[in-house]
Amino acid sequence: MFSKILIANRGEVALRIIRACKELGIRTVAVYSQPDINSLHVKYADEAICIGSAASANSYLNIPSIISAAEITDVEAIHPGYGFLAEDAHFAEICESCKIKFIGPTPENIRRMGDKMAAKDSAKKAGVPTIPGSKACVKTKEEAIKIAKEMRYPVIIKAAAGGGGKGMRICHNDVRLISAFLTAQREAEAAFGNPEVYIEKYIERPRHIEIQILGDSYGHIVHLGERDCTIQRRHQKLIEETPSPVLDAKLRKRMGEAAVKCAKAIGYVNAGTVEFLLDEDNSFYFMEMNTRIQVEHPITEMVTGIDLVKDQIRIAAGERIPYKQDNITFNGSAIECRINAEDPDNDFMPCPGKIAVFNVPGGRGVRLDTHAYPGYEISPYYDSMIGKLIVHGKNRTEAINICKRALDEFIIEPIKTTIPFHKRVMNNPAFIRGKFSTDFIERLFEKTE
Questions:
Q1: Would you call 292 a catalytic residue per the annotation?
Q2: Going by C-beta distance under 8 Å and a sequence separation of 6 or more, which residues neighbour residue 366?
Q3: Which is the catalytic residue, given 112, 292, 314, 367?
Q4: What is the pTM assigned to this prediction?
Q5: Mean pLDDT, range 398-408, rounded to an integer
């Protein structure tokens, strides 16, 4: 086992990793940008090093500074968390070349699944259903129109190196396709340094279902059930739950097995998530694979009792996964609400600023992963997430009721947050019935405006 790990991240995920390390008896090194000097991950780590100014490019994306910090503090491994460098194959390779263990998948895993067309090809070869679409990246608008007419509208344009909704456009006709194609290319270039895009058939009103997997260095891969991530805005997840209210035991088994097939096809190691779209006929299609720990991993931990971050560290240290698929059990229902510093009544506009009042919920079945505290300044430089409210109940109805109660207890002032939005969702009849699709938020706001 490692004796010291550097966490190449900030905020609640850095705290999450520090806590796992402490429980494993591992010393930790935090890195931070100048504005983050008062962050809790800096206070709670055994050592901390400033790696640059506010801009991510000068700090949390600054590979030379992070590697220098790792070498100065003599760490054996780096955990990248999620975001920033977590899915950067080049960073993983540099860690390897410096004899520092990257706590995550191999550079080859990251590179393969980071290329959306290559990932789709891997899924196809593994016998996993994929969304119909172009066989390669589309170079011209003329080629795009030809493919769209063959598939029939609606179609969706996606960035080959993308994620998080960037470089993604839905098109219902030729005119929209031409303008969206050029816009998507520009956006993909700006966001990922790669303008390549591809086209898929657009599946209307789907569910977004992801499967958590773990793989060790000995070829053993298991899945830890699904997370329903359908409640999202502009392809950004806001609420996740497990189990999904629409999956029965047979479909859950099939999707879990498909995720494991995908992972085995590329010899995947460490934690990862295979994402699917589920249509109204309960047919599912591979969408992409995230080669890192997910923001929403705590709900899986709540129903399985498995600490995913500790397992990431153990796998990176060369240990075997200690359980087989049949040993993994799922108990109750869990829901996660992402609490962001955004104004849901003003198009979710970011609301950075200082927190004066921070009263957090507690009680049975409530977990709060946050780096915020009274007096903490929400920075305009980074993601607006304040924390994650995670609840667990014996069934979905109880989990929703616990979530309602916890949201009522949660007071953050004076900045605007998404707490009122989450209250609306938890009281929405369609959500309570489990009858919703990825356009739920748009429909919710349409009805109230």
A1: yes
A2: 389, 390, 391, 402, 406
A3: 292
A4: 0.92
A5: 98
